[in-house]
Prior knowledge:
The protein is an alpha+beta fold.
Amino acid sequence: MKIGVIDYRREPPRSVTDLFEAAKKRGVEAVYLKLPLMDAFIDDGRIVVKQRDELVNIDGAVLRGIGLVMSLDVFEKRLGVLEALASTVPVINNPFNALIAKDKWRSLIRLSLHGLPVPDTMITENPFSAMRYAQAKKKIVYKPLMGSLGLGSALIEDPDLAFQTTRSLMNIGVPSYLQKYLEKPGYDYRVFVVGGKVIGAMKRVSRNSWKTNIAQGAQGVPVQEKDAPEVFTTAVKASKILGLDYAGVDIAEDVSTGKHYILEVNAFPYWEGLRASTGVNPPDYIIEHLIEKIKK
Length: 296
Ligand SMILES: Nc1ncnc2c1ncn2[C@@H]1O[C@H](COP(=O)(O)OP(=O)(O)O)[C@@H](O)[C@H]1O
Ligand SMILES: [Mg+2]
């Protein structure tokens, strides 16, 4: 058996080499597939994918990223290559589902339509809408629509700042994704789901920031199912609704109501923080899940 690990970076990042190691442990050969170097062909009615000039001859693949800054055409090309590959072998996460999850808004509407709790949220190009939203919700969070690691998110309490932020961002073609701020109990949850099961979960506790990403300095504290059963079931449901084979689900409690809300579902989650605090190694589970899919 031979698998691919797909990313866009020149050199394989840590997450990719972690997956290589997990594959090696299972006696599976793994190759690095770089999206910019990949071509796809329809050849006499057969779908073929190549990297440089070499046929991509694998039984399945793990997708880790498609790139951050690119034109719409390059984005479509990469998605097209992934679609070609996924038409011949299992690719996890499924590229379409992964890209919907990457878009915070499009994943939240899907979760909401399925009855899962999500914070009040809006997207807009209109500074006046942003201003009115800040007035109505008192305290809101601006987030990059497709951001991660807490980078670029900002708290907005002043309606005029909401107005000016949305107006300025629109000058460079960036719409605003705005969400009601939840008063958290000093932490949120990261729940790692693989193949419809929770493999590990942690509270991310922060003393100095409202952003509880590990990348923003939060500390991970392991959590068992009995400590937060509702959080576990919500995470599993969310990853199912979004059709993800593996996912990192972020869930926060609003202390004013005691209710839990899904903040986002990561289709390309990092795992260093979870591994350090729980001892669980997600790549082992991801590779095992892919092997099962290939065997089916
Ligand atoms: N609506 C919100 N209310 C309170 N805190 C939030 C809210 N949205 C995000 N946060 C905090 O910011 C962190 C990052 O937000 P998230 O939506 O997970 O985006 P990303 O991790 O992709 O940057 C969360 O883990 C949480 O601590
Ligand atoms: Mg997050």
